[in-house]
Design a protein that fits this description.
Elements: E1 2-7, E2 21-23, E3 25-26, E4 65-71, E5 75-83, E6 105-111, E7 119-124, E8 130-136, E9 140-142, E10 150-155, E11 159-167, E12 178-188
Parallel strand pairs: 1-12, 3-4
Antiparallel strand pairs: 1-2, 4-5, 5-11, 6-7, 6-12, 7-8, 8-9, 10-11
Protein name: Carbohydrate-binding domain-containing protein
Length: 193
Amino acid sequence: MIILVLCSIAFVSAKEHPIPIINAVRADEEITVDGYLSESVWQGQGYSALVQKEPVEGAMPTEETSVWIAYSEQGIFVAAKCYYSDSSSCTGGIARRDEMVQSDWFWFWIDPNKSGHSAFGFVVNPDGSIIDRKLYQDIYFDDSWDGVWEAAAKKHKDYWAVEIFIPFTQLRFSKKDEYVMGVNFERYILCKA
């Protein structure tokens, strides 16, 4: 199985910022979803060519974020390091599932069929609170969907890290030899909102 993902940059012109292709890495070792990112699959250089949406659309981010995607026979793994120039500005908050609190957040959207009109969203904050939702017809959200997935976050000295595991059973798509999926990464930094 080969998984390729197209990293879309939401709301930013494809002419100014071409949509990159990221090859998901096959996880040959067991990944423990704990927020430490200690597995070898996360040790290479992550994808970090993200751009701002707000406050200056298309500008370089004020804080670096590196992301990785891996897969196993069971599902997709996502990891991110959300760096801070001032780690005291990292804001978390423990909340009930699907409750949006004033916090920093990391969003991972996946469109398993690359339709461009629907996606599954997986959201984690620095304290491990989670949100999941479905996007359909490109503008409507279904917040009642509660997928079965794992996530963990951990605050480190200069960054906070997140790991996510999404079983393939949660993503509806047809069996193929090679998969091309659309993804989008978002990072919300509360102190800069």
